Amino acid sequence: MPQRYPVIIITGTPGTGKSTHAQLLQDASPVPLKHINVGQLVKDNGFHHGFDEQWQSYTVDEDKLLDDLEPLASAGGIILDWHTCEIFPERWADLVVVLRCNHTLLWERLEKRNYPLKKIQENNEAEIMEVVLQEARDSYPQQIIVDLKSESSEDLENNVTNIVEWINQWLKDNNHEE
């Protein structure tokens, strides 16, 4: 059965605005899209091997997670919101959005979340080194990756508008009459 609507991966270092973008995109989309906060899914469904106290995060059971997501991704019409993207098979992705943020602003955002200093430093370094962007480039065709600045409400609004325009073009390109 052909996919009905696109699969959009929204990724970026923690604090770049993935969940906010995904929720606003779900609301603005011309077609029904289900926002899946992958980190929350991992916690809620026990798709992990336990909690790592040092890094204050769950050690993900990738097999269980991917097995659960496979039917949803195959059907399409989802937004996958997570801090990494390389875990998702290339065949799932129609668009990979990598959100980027100035590292000073990112540091402030993570402090407001009360992240431990070590976790703030690690995430800040990952943003400076473009780790998530490189993961996307290494995992997916270049033509489906977009790198978007996410530092202000204006960026957020513009990004969602641009992704909605992409969805409209995707629908035309895939012979959908919306």
Question: What does this protein structure show overall?
Answer:
A hairpin with a 4-residue loop joins strand 3 (48-52) and strand 4 (57-60). It is built from 7 helices and 7 strands; from the N terminus they run E-H-E-H-E-E-H-E-E-H-H-H-E-H. Helix 1 (18-28) crosses helix 7 (153-173) and helix 4 (103-112) runs antiparallel to helix 5. 48% of the residues lie in helices and 22% in strands. The chain has helices spanning 18-28, 38-45, 62-75, 103-112, 117-128, 131-139, 153-173; strands spanning 5-12, 34-37, 48-52, 57-60, 76-82, 95-100, 145-149.
The CA-CA distance between the termini, in Å, is 19 Å
Question: What characterizes the major β-sheet?
Answer: 5 strands, parallel
Runs in which pLDDT lies below 50 for 5 or more consecutive residues are none
Shape: globular
- What is the succession of H and E elements? EHEHEEHEEHHHEH
| Class from secondary-structure proportions | alpha/beta
Number of helical segments with 4 or more residues = 7
| Tally of strands | 7
Strands across the major sheet, in which order? 2-5-1-6-7
Tell me the fraction of residues in β-strands, as a range: 15-25%
Instruction: Please state the CA-atom Rg, rounded to the nearest Å.
Output: 16 Å
The whole-number mean of residue pLDDT values reads: 95
Helix content: 40-55%
